Amino acid sequence: MRNIIRSSAIAWIAIVLWMLPAFAVPIPWKNCGNPSDVVAVSSANASVWPPQSGQPITLSFRGNLKSDVTTVTGTLTVTYTSPSGDTHQQVHTWNDAPVNQTAGPLNYPFTQVVDAPSGTIYTLHLLLQDQNGNEGICADVTVPIK
Length: 146
Hints:
By secondary structure, the chain is mainly β. The chain has one helix at 2-19; strands spanning 25-26, 29-31, 39-46, 56-65, 69-81, 87-101, 104-113, 121-130, 135-144. The strands form 2 sheets. A 5-stranded antiparallel beta sheet has the order 2-9-8-5-6, with no helix packed on it. A 4-stranded antiparallel beta sheet has the order 1-3-4-7, with no helix packed on it.
């Protein structure tokens, strides 16, 4: 009888936890663009902030695309400082990368394991343009890894 009661209690707790909304922590970022940007970001959330080394993190970005975008051109500059203080920089570029996204709401959730040692600090600068040369988005974010 105790096993039945224990199993029932565990099942009810699982159901209640499943029904609760997922907790989201806003990602601290700076919009370095302007109101006419093609992408209007309404939220950028993480399951935990700052990210924890070796642990999964779920990121979710929501917004609105003001016009159809067939291709993007842009850069992502990643500057990272290791726990020992060494600084490195990588620049990733896209030239006419196909995206074929129609105007309307955007929702991009994804989960990733943080593959960086604790104490690493990433500084990201993203600048994208659409196929007509219109600024798509400009964003700056600093990501300290715990």
